[in-house]
Every structure is written in C-alpha cells, then in structure tokens.
Design goal:
Blueprint lengths: L3 E3 L2 E3 L6 E5 L6 E6 L3 H18 L4 H17 L1 H12 L3 H21 L6 E4 L6 E8 L2 E5 L5 H14 L3 E5 L6 H12 L1 E2 L4 E2 L5 E3 L4 H10 L5 E5 L2 H11 L5 E5 L4 E5 L5 H13 L9 E7 L3 H13 L19 H16 L3 E4 L18 E4 L6 H4 L6 E7 L2 H9 L6 E5 L3 H10 L4 E4 L18 E2 L4 H6 L2 E8 L4
Parallel strand pairs: 7-8, 7-12, 8-11, 12-13, 14-15, 14-19, 15-18, 17-18, 19-20
Antiparallel strand pairs: 1-2, 3-4, 5-6, 6-22, 9-10, 13-21, 16-17
This protein binds NADP nicotinamide-adenine-dinucleotide phosphate (NAP) and magnesium ion.
Length: 486
C-alpha cells in the first residue's frame, strides 16, 4: 500500500481508511492509498506551517539547488515512475515519459529562477526618503491537481511555490495519486549544500482522498492562504466561491475548447499532423487540446483526407504495449460522456467520418477504450461544439472567410488556447488580435511551454502558470518606506 506524505513522513490516514486505484486499461487494482479527510489536511497544514518558518532560513539559491537535485533523482527513477503513471492514468508509456520530461523541464526552470526574484528601489517625493518593494512568500499553499497530467500540473505549482519560499500541500486527483507520491518523496529527499542539507520536512506534502473532503478542507482552511487549482470549470467556480469570503489568493486553470484555424495557404499536411497530436495525444484528455478545427473551404477536403488517413491507422490499446498509439480514457464515466456527446452530434445530423465507437477487439473490453473520432457537419448547437469534449473526438468545420472563422472560434464560454495555420502575416496577426484566448500558436502545436505564461481568459480561468509570471502568484509585494535620512 502507498502512503501519504506529511511532514516528511510516510503516513496512513487518521481514519485508517483506504481506497483502491485502478488501471483504466484493464480494470485491475494497481495499489491502495489512504483515504484522507479534513483531519489529514489539518495535520498537513500544521507540518507545512512549521516548514514555512524553516524555509525562511533557506536562501533562494539553496531552494534552487534542492529543486535541481530533485530533478536528477526524478530522471534516475523515470522508468519506474512512467510505469506507475501509465498504470494509474492509462496514457501510453511514451506519453508518460514525455510527461516526466516536461515535469523535469518545468522544475528546472523554477530551480534556475529561484535566485533571480527581484524587488525594486523607488524614489519618493518626500525629502530624505526612498521606497522599496520587497517580495515575500505567502505561506502554506494548496495545490489541487486533475488526473490528465498529474505530474506536470503538480510541478507547475510545486516548482514556483518552493522557489519563492512557500510550503505546499498537494491534493492529487483521487484516481492518480501514485506517481505524484513518488515524485514528492524524491523532492523531499533532495539535497543541497554538497549533499548535507534537505528542504525542511513538510515543505511539500501530499494528502490523498476525495475532492469533497480533502480538497474542500484545503479551500476552507484559513491557514492555507493560497490555492492553485487545475480542473474543470464547474469545480473551479466552486473553488472561487469558497475562497472568496476568506480572500484567498487563487489561480484557476480550467477547461477549454481550443479552436484551430487552417487557412487556404497553410501547409495542409503539417496542419493535419498537428491536429492529430493536438487532439489525440493523451487520448484527447488535454485542457489545451485542439477541440474544434475550422478549415478554409479550398483545402477542407485535402485536410480531412489527410487527418482521416492518420486516424484510421492509429492503434488503440493498453499504454504498456509498444504498438499502442493511444491508450484508454481515464474513467468509464468519461467514456460514457464522450459517447453521449457523439450521439448528440449524430442526432443533430453530423457525420462521423472515423471512429465514433469502442474498438471491437476482445482484448480491450475491460478498459475504457474509444476509437479516435472525426466528425463533420456538426451544427453550432451540438454538444461537441458547445461543451468541452474531454476525449478523442474532433469536429471539423468549413469556412470561407477568416473573420467568419474567428467569430465561430470565439463562440464559446472558453478561452484557453487557439492556433492559426497560415503563411500570411496579416491573417496571423488578425487571429493574434481577435481570438479570445490566453495562448495562441501560429503554425505550431498547442503546447504549454514552460517559458511562456500559460492560462485562460473567459471561463478557462484566472491567473497564469508557467514562465516567470507564475512566480508572481506565489509572492506578495510589500511596500517599504525608509525615511528620516536628512
Ligand atoms: P475536476 O473534476 O474539476 O477535478 C480536479 C481536482 O479537483 C481533483 O483533484 C478533484 O478531486 C478536485 N475536486 C473535486 N471536487 C472538489 C471540491 N469540492 N473541492 C476541492 N477540490 C475538488 O477535473 P478533472 O475531471 O480531474 O480534470 C479535467 C478538467 O481539468 C478538464 O475540464 C480540463 O480542461 C481541466 N484542465 C485544465 C488545465 C489548465 O491548465 N487549464 C489543465 C488540465 C486539465 P477528485 O479527483 O478527488 O474528485
Ligand atoms: Mg472530475
């Protein structure tokens, strides 16, 4: 059985209760973990408060060194962690290894930034006085993480939090706690000062258990002044409403329905390949995935034929099989949701060009498998257009005029990312200007670079992760006046 990590110790839950983590490809039990409640969160808060005080004695360079060492430890254990991630999440081993690579890249980014946080000197109108802006960590942070990228989305919170000198409590999704527990253990074990020192116990904690208990207590506990949430827009609204009366600092990374616009002059083959990766990587369970494609009528048939060819060849199977190019959906309920969204589109007159069903193979019946699916002629009121589709389903649309495509692209509550494929600088600039999203890619894959601020507008969220910008959300600016100098 796996344990939680509180105050540097591997512990069970206060209640003694546990629950099972199952493999989405086989239905088999992978391991059991403690089923935490508010009492476990309260213990973690006490440990994290002590660690926060102790972190005040560390230098930024020390914390950076500890994070760099943690990355070495993660790389040395990557093969084992990838197996665990595939077993609990369902993604292919190839995808699991990429996720670990991205996690390390992100942690190293903040390890390097730790010692580069700057305040400022401010001249004041008063004689014999000057001002300073001092930047201080906030305290105990809570990180609530979803199951689609359990490791990178934990790293985007733990990295900047520790770099800035905060302690943090991680609440992984109930269904993906295992690889997270391994990674956080490695971060706590990391050393600096020539191998002689470690981060204080409780600098990073993990409490496993349901959102309705563990997550809720993190939100309600007044001793956790900062919440970083990634997940659905529905739960994000709840997070904000609970945090509001407590004036907690929140960042919300929520759902998306990213448009991809393919113009008449685009390199259609490259665009189709990127639509495939952008939509079907991680079995389509990506916040910033390509979720609607708008293709200029002059290249529509060529684009659809190209993408159809790629999808028809895609092998669906367990993430541990070398031949698998796409694993199962993470949850059975998720697959049912996808099926009802596709049925809704069919019922409204859409045509399913590829997939639209479960794979026929006998070996896959115990897993949550679904074929990569391409849909055309879905009307604007179809659920695959109006809602976030969190699985391997892509609706494709034709357009005649770029402004029409941009209007359709913006006709959603979401605003996470969007891409345009064109060699025309004026068209690209129009999309950069007019698309209501937090991130735009021109002739490039929908991908969250560690170097750039990442986040949404509209119902896709609040605040930014990644980039030096993310550090701002883990620091408070304190204005200081020094007077009486003349
Ligand atoms: P979710 O249902 O919102 O869950 C996210 C996290 O919130 C989980 O750890 C969940 O715990 C927890 N939670 C649930 N109820 C809670 C409550 N009452 N109080 C506090 N925490 C609570 O999201 P999901 O289904 O795991 O993930 C898919 C969604 O995440 C999609 O909408 C996707 O677009 C979005 N996402 C966004 C980004 C981004 O950066 N913008 C990145 C990835 C994913 P349990 O697992 O125990 O329920
Ligand atoms: Mg959920």
């Amino acid at each position: 059985m796996a344990h939680m990590l509180i105050g540097g110790e591997q512990v069970g839950s206060v209640s003694g209760n546990t629950y099972q983590v199952c493999n989405p490809a086989t239905g088999e039990v992978v391991d059991s973990v403690p089923k935490g409640t508010a009492a476990d969160v309260q213990q973690a808060v006490a440990a994290a408060e002590q660690a926060f005080v102790a972190l005040g004695e560390t230098s930024a360079e020390d914390r950076g060194a500890a994070l760099f060492d943690a990355c070495e430890r993660i790389k040395a254990n990557a093969a084992e962690i990838a197996q665990l991630l595939t077993a609990e999440q369902g993604k292919t081993l190839f995808e699991a290894n990429l996720e670990i690579h991205h996690l390390v890249h992100g942690l190293e980014f903040y390890a390097g930034l730790a010692s580069k946080v700057r305040g400022s000197y401010v001249p004041l109108p008063q004689k014999g006085a000057y001002g300073l802006v001092v930047r201080q960590p906030i305290g105990v942070c809570g990180a609530i993480v979803p199951w689609n990228f359990p490791l990178t989305l934990m790293g985007t919170k733990v990295g900047p939090a520790l770099a800035a000198g905060n302690s943090i409590i991680v609440k992984p999704a109930s269904t993906t706690p295992l690889a997270t527990l391994r990674i956080v253990q490695l971060i706590q074990e990391a050393t600096y000062a020539g191998g002689n020192k470690q981060l204080p116990p409780g600098a990073v904690n993990v409490v496993t258990g349901p959102g309705s208990d563990v997550g809720e207590e993190l939100l309600k506990n007044p001793r956790v002044p900062r919440i970083a949430f990634t997940g659905s827009t529905e739960v994000g609204r709840h997070v904000m409403s609970v945090a509001a009366p407590l004036i907690k600092r929140v960042t919300l990374e929520l759902g998306g329905s990213d448009p991809m616009i393919v113009c008449a002059d685009a390199d259609v083959e490259t665009a189709a390949k990127n639509a495939d990766v952008g939509r079907f990587f991680n079995c389509g369970q990506m916040c910033l995935g390509v979720k609607r494609v708008f293709v200029h009528e002059s290249v529509y048939d060529a684009f659809v034929a190209q993408l159809k060819g790629i999808l028809e060849k895609k092998t669906v199977g367990p993430g541990t099989e070398r031949s698998s190019r796409m694993g199962p959906l993470h949850l059975a309920s998720q697959r049912e949701e996808i099926e009802s969204q596709v049925e809704d589109a069919r019922g409204r007159g859409a045509t399913v060009l590829v997939g639209g069903q479960r794979p026929a193979s006998d070996g896959l019946t115990n897993g949550n498998f679904y074929l990569p699916t391409l849909i055309e002629n879905a009307p604007q009121d179809a659920r695959v257009v109006r809602e976030e589709v969190f699985g391997p389903v892509l609706p494709v649309f034709r357009f005649a005029d770029l402004d029409q495509a941009i209007d359709m692209a913006n006709d959603t509550i979401y605003g996470l990312g969007g891409s345009i494929w064109t060699r025309d600088l004026v068209a690209a600039n129009r999309a950069i200007d007019k698309l209501q999203v937090g991130n735009i890619w021109v002739n490039s894959l929908h991908y969250g670079y560690d170097e750039l601020p990442f986040g949404g507008v509209k119902a896709s969220g609040l605040g930014r992760e990644h980039g030096p910008e993310a550090l701002d959300y883990y620091l408070e600016s304190k204005g200081v006046v020094i007077a009486g100098l003349s």
